[in-house]
Write a structure and sequence with these properties.
Layout: H1 2-12, H2 15-37, H3 47-66, H4 81-107, H5 110-115, H6 121-148, H7 159-183, H8 186-201, H9 220-225, H10 228-240, H11 248-279
Helix pairs in contact: 2-6, 3-4, 4-6, 4-7, 4-8, 4-10, 6-7, 7-8, 7-10, 7-11, 10-11
Length: 280
């Protein structure tokens, strides 16, 4: 009983004081995740690049060779389907990784959480930070290639900001699903199905130009274009591939989606975090 009361007192304290207090723990979780990710692997962190590269090669072959889908010209006028795909894939991998990872990250600390008290979100933030490091490596490779082909500009500098916002958007959703998954393990399978479907409902592996304006009287292209995830993908492509400044309307949308998702998700998680120890 005393344990429950002490946990509630910690929860009611100032959130910024707690964040500063537990930040070293977040760093430890991040380091643990980074060390464990490719432990006993011969290639180690090389896999973090080989996985997206293999995906890029497969989809480039299918869509650019078999279906002859042509990407829009890049900022320097060249057309490179692989780079067009890579720019969108970096955003998607971060977004989907935050959602899928949050469920695994929370369940992985079940035994430790039952032995000693610490805010469960520290493990989620730590692992999210580790995922952010991997995303930063992928983005750095993308920017390096863009530099080599002379397709860079001032707009390229905003790509990291877009990735941070996409990560917050995915993490906010992750807070919701990890709580539900703690009570109902079916959630992780349902989320996997939804993300697989969503991947093809966002123009990542194909240009949006191949989507018809309408089908069966349904404005399909507009529905896909205004998909929240597509706003982040489109902003990344505009900044890093097309070398264009995104519209103020798009910036307003991605900031709203990321802030609202993260704030609501964290609030929802905090209200139920005290019950999670019993269910993990």
């Amino acid at each position: 009983m005393a344990s429950k009361e002490s946990e509630n007192q910690v929860r009611d304290s100032n959130v910024f004081v707690d964040a500063k207090k537990y930040f070293p723990l977040v760093q430890n979780f991040a380091r643990r995740e980074l060390k464990a990710r490719y432990k006993r692997s011969l290639l180690g962190w090389t896999w973090s690049l080989l996985n997206p590269i293999s995906t890029i090669l497969v989809y480039s072959l299918v869509f650019s060779v078999f279906f002859r889908a042509a990407p829009p010209p890049s900022g320097n006028g060249s057309q490179n389907f692989a780079l067009f795909l890579f720019t969108g894939l970096v955003v998607w991998l971060l977004f989907a990784g935050m959602i899928n990872g949050s469920m695994g990250w929370l369940s992985s600390i079940g035994d430790l959480r039952r032995k000693v008290f610490f805010p469960p979100e520290t493990a989620i933030f730590g692992s999210a930070l580790a995922l952010g490091v991997q995303s930063a490596i992928e983005a750095a490779v993308l920017i390096l290639v863009m530099i080599l082909i002379a397709n860079v500009g001032l707009t390229t500098l905003v790509l990291p900001i877009i990735l941070v916002l996409a990560g917050l958007f995915g993490l906010g959703i992750g807070f919701f699903v990890c709580v539900f998954n703690t009570h109902y393990r079916d959630v992780q399978y349902l989320v996997g199905i939804i993300l697989n479907a969503l991947f093809f409902l966002v123009p990542i592996v194909y240009p949006i130009s191949i989507i018809p304006e309408a089908h069966w009287g349904i404005p399909i292209r507009k529905m896909i274009e205004y998909n929240p995830v597509n706003q982040f993908v489109a902003a990344a492509r505009e900044s890093a591939y097309l070398l264009e400044w995104s519209s103020w309307n798009r910036w307003a949308l991605i900031i709203f989606y990321s802030v609202a998702s993260f704030a609501l998700g964290w609030r929802f998680f905090n209200k139920r975090s005290m019950q999670l120890s019993e269910d993990m």
